[in-house]
Specification:
The complex is a heterodimer of chains A (about 300) and B (about 650). Chain A has about 300 residues and is mainly alpha-helical. Helices cover about 75% and strands about 5% of the residues of chain A. Chain A is built from 11 helices and 2 strands. The longest helix of chain A is centred in the first third of the chain and has 30 residues. Chain B is built from 23 helices and 12 strands. The chains are: A mainly alpha (about 300), B alpha/beta (about 650).
Chain lengths: ~300, ~650
C-alpha cells in the first residue's frame, strides 16, 4: 500500500510536468489545428535555455523564466516563419504535420550542434525528500506540483475571463467565422503559439530537472506521452488535457511498480493507441468515431 | 571501383528499395506511415535469425530460431513476416482514423516495438543486437572480395522490385489505390472497399520494406535497435519528397540524393570544436531545410508523378462483343441536339428508344481522336428496375435528431424529388440510404433486400449510387482514369491478376476505354481525357460526374442537388441528362431546391421537414397542402416574389 502511494506521489510529479506540456499542445491543436511534431523540441529548447542560465546563476526562477521565454520565442517563430506562410496556401493537414517534423529535425540538430550529444545536468542545490502525508517528495517535486497548479489556474483565468480567451475559443470553433466577426484570427493563432511555447518551454525545464540529464532528444522522447495525454483528454479541452495528464502520469508511475520501469512508456503508448481507436475525441466525448461521411454534408 | 564507392552505392540501392516501399504506402495510398523503418528493422531481424547459426549466447543474452538458412530463405521469411506484421498493424490502425492520428498510431507502434526489442533480450538480444550474419556471394569471383557481388545482387533485386511495383502501379489495383489517396469518399461511392484497399497497400509496402531490411542486415552483417529511429523514416520521406512522390524513378534518385549525396557532402564539413556529431547535425538541419524548400517551391518533387496515358490495345474480338449493358447514356448525344425546346420533352414516354446512330463528332472541336463506335452501341434495356422503401428511419447526431422516424418510398423507374427546408434531414437521408451514415433505427429496403447499415461500397455494388452536392472526382487522376474507376470492377482489381496477367487486363480494359471515350464525347469532355480531373471547371466536373454515373450503369441513383453551382445553360443540359437516365430505366431520387426544375422533371415529390417526411404527391398537390406550404413552400414563394 505504501509503495502504491509512493507511486501515486511520483505520478503526481510526472502528471504535473505532463499537464504543463499537454495543455498548451491541446490549446494549439484546437486553435491552430496543427498536430505539432516539434512540440517535444519546444520542451528541449526550454530545458537547454535554463541550462545556459544555470551555468551562470543558480536561481530557479530565472532558469524557469529563461526556459519559458526561449520556448515562446521558438514556437512563435516556427509559426510565423514556417507554418503561417504555408497555412495561407490552405494545404492538406498532413503537409503542415510534415513541416513540423522538418522543424523538429532542425531544432533538435541545431541543439546537437551547439551543445553536443553529451548528457548535461543542472547544478541544483540538494533537495532532500520530505514525508508529506503518504507521499515522499523533494522540494523540487513540490515546486513542480505548485508551479503546475499556478499555471493551470492562470490558463483557466485567461481562457474564461479575458477577451483573448473568448476570441481563442471562437477561432477554435471556426477560424473563418471568427474572422468575419472582427477577430483577427491570424493574430490569435500567433498569440496561441506564443502561449504554447511559454508554457511548454517551462515544462521542458521541469522535465530536465526531473530527469536529471539533458540530451537533444529529451523532449522528443516525451512527445508521444504528451500526445497520449492530450488525445485522452480530448483535443481543445484544457481541463480534459489536465485530467489526461494526471491519468497517464499516474498510470505510468504505478505500472512501474508492477512491470519493469523501462516498459512504463509502453503503457502510455498503449493507452494512446486504445484511445485513438475507441474514443478518438477523448474519454470525455461521446464514443462516436468521426466518420468519413461528415465531409459529404 | 574502390570498396568505399561500392559501399556507398550498395547503401543507396538498398535504401532505394525502402523508399519504394514508402512510395507504395505514401505515394500510392496516401498513408502517412511513420513506422516504416520499424518494418525495415523487423525484416532485418527476421533475416538475421533465419540465417544465423543456433544461439549459444549465455543468458540473459540470446536470440530465437538460429536456423542457418540460406540467403534466399532468410529474405523470403523477412518479406512474409513483415507482410504479416503490416497486416496486423494496418488492420488496427487503418480503421476510421484521421490521417494524422494514423501517423501517430504507427509511431506509437514503432516505439513500442523498439522498446520491446531493446528490453526483451531473448528475442533479438536486446540493445546488443545481432551480428555475424552471412553476406551472400562474399567470397566468389569476380568482385566478391570488396562487396561487388553483393552490390550487383542488390541492383538486380532493386530492378526486379521496381518492375513488379510499376506493373502493380499501372494495374487496375494500383489505380484503385491511388483513387483512395485522391478522395476515399468518392472511391467508396463507386464501390471500392477503402479499408481493404488501404490495407493491401500497407501490406505491400511492408513486404517491400522487409525485403529492404533483409538486404540491409545482409550487407551490414549486424543490426541493433539503435540503427533505427523515427528519424530514419523521415530521411526516407525526405528522399521521396525530393525525388517525387508517386514516381518510382524519382524515389530512387531522391534516395541517392539524400542518403548518399547529402551525406557525402556534409562529410567534408570540418568538425566543430570537440563536437563529434557536428557533421551529422549539419546534415540533418540541411535535410530539414530541403524538405521545407521542396514543399514550398516544388511539392511534386524533381520527377512528378507520371500522368497515365490513355492507350487502346487491339483486341481480336473487337469491343462491341463485351460492351456492358449501359443503356441510359446512349441517348445523350441525341438529347443534346434536342435540348432547346425542353418543356415538351417532359411528355416523352419512358420507353422511348433513341435512334442509335447520329453523327456524333459533327461540329465538336474535341472529337479529334474519337473512336467511332457509336454505331456499335445498341439501345439495351436497363437490367432490372428497382424501387426503394424507407421505414421509420432515425439518425441522431448528439442531441440533434437529423432524421426522426422518416418513412418514404420511391417507385421503381420513377423520377422522384426530395425537397424540404434547410436542416430538414435531406442530406442525412441521402447519406443513410447510400451507406455513408449508419441509421440508429429503421429499415431501408432496396430491390427486396435490407441495406440499412451496410457500408457505402457494398450498397454501391448493388447498383444504388449517389452524386454529391459538390462533385467529387479524383482530382489528381486523369479524366480517363476517373471514368475507368467508375466502371463496374468485375474482379479486375485483384493484386495477383495485376501482377501476373497485365496484358489480359489491359485488353479487357480496352472495351472500357472505348466506352469511356464515347461517354466523354457525349458530354463534350473527350478533348480533356488526359487532363487531371482536378483542373476541370465546376460545370465540367458536374458533367464528368454524370458521365461517370453513366459508366457505372447503376439501377438507382441518388442525386444530391445536381443543380448546385450550375449555370442556366448547363442546367438545361442537366435536365436532359437526368431525364435520359430515367428513360433508360434508372430510378432516380433527387434532392433539389429549384422547384421549377423539379416541377418540370418530377411527377412525384416527397417533402421532408424536421427529420420526417410530411407529404408526397405532385407539385400541384403539394401546393394545395397547408402543412407543406407552412413548412417550406410558403417561405420560398415569398422569397421568390
Amino acid at each position: 500500500m505504501s509503495n502504491l502511494m509512493l507511486g501515486v506521489g511520483f505520478g503526481l510529479v510526472t502528471a504535473s510536468i505532463l499537464a504543463l506540456a499537454t495543455v498548451p499542445l491541446s490549446l494549439q491543436m484546437s486553435v491552430a489545428r496543427i498536430p505539432n511534431f516539434a512540440h517535444g523540441e519546444i520542451l528541449t529548447v526550454g530545458a537547454y535555455a535554463a541550462y545556459v542560465v544555470n551555468q551562470h546563476v543558480n536561481n530557479i526562477y530565472l532558469e524557469a523564466l529563461a526556459a519559458a521565454l526561449a520556448g515562446g520565442l521558438v514556437a512563435y517563430l516556427m509559426n510565423t516563419l514556417l507554418l503561417q506562410p504555408f497555412a495561407r496556401r490552405k494545404p492538406k493537414l498532413l503537409i503542415l504535420f510534415i513541416l513540423t517534423i522538418a522543424a523538429s529535425l532542425m531544432i533538435q540538430n541545431i541543439i546537437l550542434l551547439f551543445f553536443t550529444g553529451n548528457s548535461l545536468a543542472y547544478h541544483l542545490p540538494p533537495s532532500p525528500p520530505h514525508k508529506i502525508g503518504p507521499f515522499l517528495l523533494t522540494g523540487l517535486n513540490l515546486f513542480t506540483i505548485a508551479a503546475a497548479i499556478v499555471v493551470m489556474l492562470a490558463v483557466h483565468v485567461l481562457l474564461k475571463y479575458t477577451k483573448f480567451g473568448k476570441a481563442q475559443r471562437a477561432v477554435a470553433d471556426s477560424k473563418d467565422l471568427a474572422q468575419v466577426t472582427g477577430i483577427n484570427s491570424e493574430r490569435i493563432v500567433q498569440l496561441t503559439w506564443l502561449l504554447d511555447g511559454l508554457i511548454a518551454g517551462f515544462a521542458g525545464f521541469l522535465l530536465g530537472v526531473s530527469s536529471g540529464t539533458l540530451t537533444p532528444t529529451l523532449g522528443q522522447g516525451y512527445l508521444l506521452v504528451i500526445f497520449a495525454a492530450a488525445i485522452l483528454g480530448g483535443i481543445g479541452k484544457p481541463y480534459g488535457a489536465m485530467a489526461g495528464a494526471v491519468f497517464i502520469g499516474v498510470a505510468m508511475e504505478i505500472s512501474a511498480l508492477y512491470i519493469p520501469a523501462s516498459y512504463k512508456e509502453v503503457v502510455a503508448f498503449g493507452l494512446l493507441i486504445l484511445t485513438l481507436l475507441l474514443r478518438p475525441n477523448g474519454i470525455f466525448a461521446a464514443p462516436r468515431a468521426a466518420g468519413a461521411a461528415g465531409a459529404t454534408a | 571501383m574502390s570498396q568505399y564507392v561500392i559501399g556507398l552505392a550498395t547503401t543507396g540501392v538498398i535504401l532505394s528499395i525502402v523508399t519504394l516501399a514508402l512510395n507504395v504506402r505514401w505515394g500510392w495510398a496516401g498513408e502517412f506511415d511513420i513506422a516504416l523503418f520499424a518494418f525495415v528493422a523487423v525484416g532485418a531481424y527476421i533475416y538475421s535469425v533465419f540465417t544465423l547459426a543456433p544461439n549459444n549466447l549465455p543468458p540473459p543474452s540470446g536470440y530465437i530460431l538460429g536456423l542457418k538458412a540460406p540467403f534466399l530463405v532468410g529474405v523470403i521469411a523477412a518479406i512474409v513476416v513483415t507482410g504479416a506484421l503490416s497486416a496486423a498493424v494496418g488492420a488496427v490502425a487503418l480503421r476510421k482514423l484521421r490521417d494524422d492520428y494514423f501517423g501517430i498510431t504507427t509511431l506509437a507502434f514503432a516505439l513500442i516495438l523498439a522498446l520491446v526489442i531493446g528490453q526483451y533480450t531473448p528475442l533479438f538480444d536486446g540493445y546488443e543486437g545481432l551480428f555475424g550474419m552471412p553476406q551472400p556471394l562474399a567470397t566468389v569471383a569476380p568482385f566478391g572480395l570488396n562487396g561487388g557481388n553483393f552490390l550487383a545482387l542488390s541492383i538486380v533485386i532493386l530492378v526486379l522490385c521496381f518492375l513488379v511495383l510499376q506493373r502493380l502501379y499501372n494495374s487496375p489495383f494500383g489505380r484503385a489505390v491511388r483513387s483512395v489517396r485522391e478522395d476515399d469518399t468518392a472511391s467508396a461511392a463507386f464501390g471500392r472497399n477503402v479499408y481493404v484497399l488501404k490495407l493491401k497497400a500497407y501490406i505491400l509496402g511492408g513486404c517491400v520494406a522487409g525485403l529492404g531490411g533483409a538486404l540491409l542486415a545482409a550487407y551490414i552483417t549486424a543490426f541493433n535497435p539503435y540503427g533505427w529511429t523515427p528519424q530514419e523514416t523521415f530521411l526516407i520521406y525526405a528522399s521521396l519528397f525530393i525525388g517525387g512522390t508517386g514516381n518510382a524513378i524519382g524515389a530512387v534518385i531522391g534516395t541517392f540524393f539524400v542518403e548518399v549525396g547529402v551525406q557525402e557532402v556534409t562529410r567534408y564539413v570540418p568538425q566543430l570544436g570537440s563536437n563529434a556529431s557536428s557533421s551529422d547535425a549539419i546534415r540533418l538541419v540541411l535535410i530539414g531545410l530541403l524538405i521545407i524548400a521542396v514543399l514550398w517551391w516544388r511539392p511534386q518533387g524533381i520527377l512528378p508523378e507520371r500522368r497515365a496515358r490513355d492507350r487502346l490495345v487491339a483486341v481480336g474480338a473487337g469491343p462491341a462483343a463485351r460492351l456492358p449493358a449501359l443503356a441510359w447514356a446512349a441517348p445523350l448525344g441525341l438529347a443534346r441536339k434536342r435540348a432547346e425546346p425542353a418543356p415538351q420533352a417532359v411528355a416523352a414516354p419512358p420507353d422511348r428508344v433513341p435512334a442509335p446512330a447520329v453523327s456524333p463528332a459533327a461540329g465538336r472541336p474535341d472529337g479529334d481522336d474519337t473512336v467511332s463506335v457509336r454505331a456499335l452501341q445498341p439501345p439495351v434495356p436497363a437490367p432490372g428496375v428497382q424501387g426503394l422503401e424507407v421505414t421509420a428511419l432515425t439518425k441522431a447526431f448528439g442531441g440533434v435528431k437529423a432524421v426522426n422516424g422518416a418513412t418514404l418510398s420511391v417507385r421503381a423507374g420513377s423520377l422522384t424529388g426530395l425537397i424540404g427546408p434547410n436542416g430538414a434531414g435531406k442530406s442525412t437521408m441521402i447519406n443513410l440510404i447510400s451507406g455513408f451514415e449508419s441509421p440508429d433505427s429503421g429499415t431501408i429496403m432496396f430491390g427486396g433486400r435490407s441495406i440499412a447499415g451496410k457500408p457505402a461500397h457494398a450498397i454501391s455494388r448493388l447498383g444504388l449510387m449517389r452524386s454529391f452536392q459538390t462533385p467529387r472526382e479524383w482530382p489528381g487522376l486523369t479524366v480517363m482514369e476517373n471514368m475507368l474507376l467508375s466502371m463496374p470492377i468485375a474482379g479486375r482489381e485483384s493484386v495477383w491478376r495485376g501482377l501476373l496477367t497485365p496484358g489480359r487486363l489491359r485488353a479487357a480494359e480496352s472495351a472500357d476505354r472505348v466506352r469511356a471515350r464515347e461517354l466523354l464525347d457525349e458530354v463534350g469532355l473527350l478533348g480533356l481525357k488526359d487532363e487531371p480531373a482536378g483542373n476541370l471547371s465546376g460545370g465540367q466536373k458536374r458533367l464528368l460526374e454524370f458521365a461517370r454515373l453513366a459508366a457505372a450503369a447503376p439501377r438507382f441513383v441518388l442525386l444530391d442537388e445536381p443543380q448546385a453551382g450550375v449555370n442556366p445553360v448547363l442546367r438545361e443540359r442537366m435536365a436532359e441528362l437526368i431525364r435520359n437516365m430515367v428513360n433508360a430505366g434508372v430510378t432516380v431520387l433527387m434532392v433539389e431546391h429549384n422547384l421549377a426544375f423539379l416541377e418540370q422533371l418530377c411527377d412525384h415529390v416527397i417533402v421532408m421537414a424536421l427529420g420526417t417526411c410530411i407529404a408526397t404527391g405532385s407539385m400541384a398537390d403539394l401546393r394545395a397542402n397547408q402543412d407543406v406550404v407552412d413548412a417550406y413552400l410558403g417561405q420560398v414563394n415569398v422569397a421568390d416574389a
